[in-house]
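Field notebook, page 275. I keep forgetting to write these up properly, so this time I am using the form the group agreed on. The chain and the ligand, 3-methyl-2-oxobutanoic acid, are recorded exactly as supplied. Prediction of the bound pose follows.
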Amino acid sequence: MKNTVLTFKQAKEKGEKLSMLTAYDYSTARLIDESGVNSILVGDSLGNVILGYEDTISVTMEDMIHHSAAVARGAQNALVICDMPFMSYQTSVYDAVVNAGRLMKEGRANAVKLEGGKEVCPQIKAIVDAGIPVCGHLGLTPQSINAFGGFKVQAKTEAAAKKLIADAKAVEAAGAFAVVLECVPAKLAELVTKELSIPTIGIGAGNVCDGQVLVYQDMLGMFTDFTPKFVKRFENIGEVMKRAFSAYDEEVKAGTFPDKEHEYTISDDVLEKLY
Ligand code: KIV
């Protein structure tokens, strides 16, 4: 059954946990979809794990649309949420609505996600008013990495924690259907989760959040440039892939691949006529 924003609402009401993973292509989206995960986030983390940038700043609308459309073709049941890239919504309410619309029309997303608190609430409200579900994102918001001065745990002081709570309430009041909390102390995430009637989706925010999200390459050991403390490696697929690539390399160079089993045949009659 297709997960929708109603699934999120009902899960919060019933106290059921929500699962979310990132994906950026059709075949991975299909695997995640078939495993029962509620939602697929086409994160702008694709800048890091797919495109090899050191941050998400350079990711474009075209990048997001391209990958979202591929994911949407593979997701029958999971709710597809597409990140709005840096400067696609901060510039104006008009830009925000136009670009959210493109992610829905061209990227075939079911919802969009954008980073920030009170300062982006006019954008959230306008996008929601246009009929597009919005997921918020607070705490460590990677598009503001230059303002933060690095990837660090957020909201540890009293003032910053109070601001996070106020931002979460503002994002909810603006109409967001869920909010991602990234890299915030677990006890603070618990407080926010209790204060809100929309689900909180944690990443480095403890296990009291209403749901969890991870970048799939992180949880499978496929991306090792940097590994935050909150990442749990569920399998080491990166090592399995490297072993398979080496075995392929060796067999090609030894002339043992392809063998008879992987060849196509032609009848001897036809072959004779070629000589
Ligand atoms: O871009 C992304 O993958 C994200 C998650 C880390 C929440 O925003």
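OBSERVATIONS:
- The CA atoms of residues 49 and 223 lie 7 Å apart.
- The first helix runs from residue 5 to 14.
FOLLOW-UP: compare against the apo run.
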